[in-house]
Design brief:
The complex is a heterodimer of chains A (about 70) and B (about 575).
Chain A: H1 3-13, H2 34-48, H3 63-70
Helix pairs in contact in A: 1-2
Chain B: E1 2-11, H1 18-27, E2 31-37, H2 43-48, E3 58-62, H3 79-96, E4 101-105, H4 125-141, E5 147-151, H5 152-164, H6 167-173, H7 179-196, E6 203-206, H8 217-224, H9 234-249, E7 253-259, H10 262-271, E8 282-288, H11 292-303, E9 310-314, H12 317-326, E10 331-334, H13 345-349, H14 359-381, H15 384-390, E11 393-399, H16 405-414, H17 427-434, E12 439-448, E13 451-464, E14 467-475, H18 484-500, E15 504-510, H19 521-524, E16 527-529, E17 538-543, H20 547-552, E18 558-562
Parallel strand pairs in B: 1-2, 1-3, 3-4, 4-5, 6-7, 6-9, 7-8, 9-10, 11-18, 14-15
Antiparallel strand pairs in B: 11-12, 12-13, 13-14, 15-17, 16-17
Helix pairs in contact in B: 1-7, 3-4, 5-7, 8-10
Chain lengths: ~70, ~575
């Protein structure tokens, strides 16, 4: 998976980078609550220089969804 | 890395994402942080309970008007009521809390619901918010050593609408502020934590060519460098110099580190009509062709401050990279490639934060300069004992009063090298000590033939039955190297003996990683070490000789006056 994505995920979710993989999602990561959802969007928008559309926001609940949205 | 700092947030909106930026800010200073957020709707309750709340390194009371009412900023919004409630929360927080606290100015509505029209008989919401901000600022100023103030209005001015607000999460999650705003806020929160932890930057080390002026003085000559206010990029550099002088005015030492001919650089400083920075502003300089990391290390040594107290600014990516690699403790700033961004570089990075600026701060750069004279005097005399005698040092020791509180707390925060225990008591703790008959808080003031160094030492002792324990003994690095610290210890013994009739004293040395030079101090000051394990980082000492005898010792080289 994209290393920058892994780094930001690990930072915001306060996890070891090795604990993040393609399958990480809201469903299997208890720390990924609604507040972290917002923090992740902020940190990833800043890190990748992008801005997600309103209808994308509720869908960004897994590493796979971020990878799709960022095209990485 | 120091064990985690703990920060409590009391807030009336969603603020959790700020912790990402706060962690980043502090990681740069080798500090880690854990954030505890109160209930979103619980602020009134939490400020009321602060009196009994557990101690934290900082309590951030983050109150905004954005979520004060669903019609915030619209024609129906009751600005007076919202502002009154907020001020009451802030007042309660200040009255009930003990440890360090951070308040903030609030933002007025972005747009005027009246379209800017005056509505007779009704105060404009902007004016109501202005009055609230004035009251909040005054509230913080009632206890400046403890209560810091974050100016959200300044962030909003600097960042603009899209840098300040994020409508998506404001409207969906009660989180009004955008990442740039949160990052800027985190920087100020980190600054307060760093100051309280004794991690402050004390000296700005500047390159010259393409940093203090445009161009290269060695090639372009005195007339060729760009520093004129009437043209670009000269005007940018001149504005940058003004920012440097602002720092100088509040006590930051200014040093130059440049690969240049010294004479060329001083020709600019002494005689260029547009150069604002002058020789008398400098505390140290290394202008030669030496490696910059070595030069920077020698500037730190000359000023007697740690490498982590330095900020280095250079336009060369190569030099910045080298210094950052060899001296990772030094904070390195590179001049922006886009020259208009030179303006405000130092302010944006806010590396020279201070919670309060005291008279001693304002006089500090003069002291660094006097220290250069002292060093030259030392070089002339050669013999160390003769030098110390020749300084004609006078150390006055007296009991601290409420007037000294701000400076005493500042010394407790800032002093690293000659600090036997490095206990960072905060303003509340010191205030309580001043009123406690079983605690002695002493100040030391020093003057010599070159000038007055002001209040440079703090000692704290606690009475224990027929004896006393020394909690703190510290002296600013500017006053070291002349045995004034030994004189201070004798003065402390004398006070303890005279005030309490104490028969014994116990003291300790706690290694902090920065105070190795004080490791054997208590032995030099006449005490005996109790434990014999030489490896331990903490050591206990006790008076063997009678305290009366220790108190009568006369210090070498220093005239000791005990009030």
């Amino acid at each position: 998976m994209n290393e920058q994505l892994r780094k930001v995920m690990a930072e915001v979710l306060e996890l070891d980078p090795d604990a993040i993989n393609e399958n990480t999602s809201v469903g299997n990561q208890p720390k990924w609550d609604s507040l972290r959802h917002m923090s992740l969007i902020f940190a990833i928008e800043e890190g990748f220089g992008v801005r997600f559309e309103d209808d994308q926001l509720p869908e960004l609940t897994s590493v796979a969804a971020y990878a799709r949205a960022l095209g990485c | 890395m120091i064990a985690g700092l703990r920060v409590r947030f009391i807030r009336n909106f969603t603020l959790e994402p700020v912790s990402t930026w706060l962690s980043r800010e502090l990681a740069g200073a080798g500090l880690s942080v854990s954030c505890k957020f109160g209930d979103y709707a619980g602020a009134p309750n939490e400020v009321a309970m602060l009196a009994d709340a557990e101690h934290m390194d900082l309590t951030v009371v983050a109150l905004g008007l954005e979520m004060s009412s669903p019609d915030f900023g619209h024609a129906t919004w009751d600005a007076e009521a919202s502002c009154e409630r907020l001020l009451l929360l802030a007042r309660t927080a200040v009255a009930n809390s003990h440890g360090p606290l951070l308040l903030n100015a609030v933002l007025p509505p972005l747009h005027s619901a009246s379209g800017g029209a005056v509505i007779p008989g009704r105060a404009a919401p902007e004016a109501v918010v202005d009055a609230l901000n004035l009251a909040l600022r005054e509230l913080a100023a009632t206890d400046p050593a403890r209560v810091a103030f974050a100016d959200w209005g300044a962030y909003a001015r600097q960042l603009g609408e899209t840098g300040t607000y994020d409508q998506r999460f404001w409207r969906s999650s009660a989180a009004p502020f955008a990442p740039p705003f949160l990052a800027r806020y985190a920087r100020d929160i980190a600054a307060v934590l760093r100051v309280n932890a004794g991690r402050v930057h004390k000296c700005l080390v500047l390159d010259c060519d393409n940093t203090l002026w445009g161009g290269i003085v060695g090639e372009d000559g005195l007339d060729g460098i760009r520093l004129s206010e009437d043209s670009l990029p000269g005007a940018y550099y001149r504005e940058f110099q003004r920012s440097v002088l602002d720092l100088h005015a509040r006590g930051v030492a200014i040093a130059l580190c440049s690969k240049n001919n010294e004479a060329d650089v001083f020709k600019v400083l002494d005689s260029h009509p547009d150069c604002l920075l002058r020789r008398e502003h400098l505390s140290a300089w290394r202008i030669d062709w030496e490696d910059k990391s070595a030069s920077i290390a020698s500037i730190a040594a000359q000023l007697n401050i740690g490498l982590d107290a330095l900020v280095f600014v250079d336009d060369s990516a190569l030099e910045c990279e080298l210094v950052a690699r060899v001296l990772p403790q030094v904070r390195v700033l590179m001049m922006p490639a886009i020259s208009s961004q030179i303006v405000g570089l130092l302010e944006r990075n806010n590396l020279f934060e201070a919670l309060v600026v005291t008279d001693t701060d304002r006089a500090r750069t003069a002291t660094y300069r006097q220290n250069n004279e002292r060093q030259r005097f030392s070089a002339e005399i050669g013999d160390l004992a003769e030098y110390k005698r020749g300084l004609v040092t006078e150390l006055r020791i007296r009991t601290a009063t409420a007037v000294d509180l701000v400076r005493v707390v500042q010394l407790l925060q800032r002093t690293n090298q000659f600090n036997l225990t490095s206990r960072r008591h905060d303003a509340d703790a010191v205030r309580a000590m001043l009123g406690d008959p079983d605690v002695l808080v002493l100040c030391a003031e020093l003057r010599d033939r070159f000038g007055d160094l002001g209040l440079i030492g703090v000692a704290i002792a606690r009475r224990d039955r027929d004896g006393a324990r020394i909690d703190t003994l510290l002296m600013s690095c500017r006053a070291l190297g002349r045995d004034a610290e030994l004189a201070f210890a004798i003065g402390l013994y004398r006070k303890i003996h005279d005030d309490w009739r104490a028969e014994w004293i116990e003291a300790e040395y706690l290694a902090s990683g920065k105070n190795a030079q004080a490791a054997d101090f208590w032995t030099r000051a006449g005490l005996r070490r109790l434990d014999s394990d030489m490896a331990v980082a903490t050591a206990q000492y006790r008076s063997d000789r009678s305290l009366a005898e220790l108190a009568q010792t006369n210090p070498d080289y220093v005239t000791l006056l005990v009030d």
